[in-house]
Design a protein that fits this description.
The protein is mainly β. About 10% of the residues lie in helices and about 40% in strands. The chain has a domain of about 50 residues. The chain is elongated, with a radius of gyration of 20 Å.
Length: about 70
């Protein structure tokens, strides 16, 4: 599955799942749970339901086989 709706907000990356118009009848927290999203962003008259793409810090593990034991 290819995702075209990846965007950056500050230093964080998000995968957009759905959008919905802002209305008084709409409960964004309920829809967030229903659609299994972890973040709701709002811009102008739209809610953006998305999941954050987690960044990881890693350290490379090197397997030096050049050392010999006698």
């Amino acid at each position: 599955m290819l995702y075209k709706n990846i965007f950056e907000f500050g230093e964080r990356m998000f995968l957009l799942y759905r959008t919905a118009k802002v209305t008084d009848k709409l409960d964004p927290n309920l829809l967030k749970k229903y659609w299994h999203c972890d973040t709701v962003l709002k811009k102008e008259e739209l809610y953006y339901f998305c999941n954050e793409i987690k960044t990881i810090n890693y350290e490379e593990i090197r397997n030096d086989s050049s050392t010999t034991t006698t």
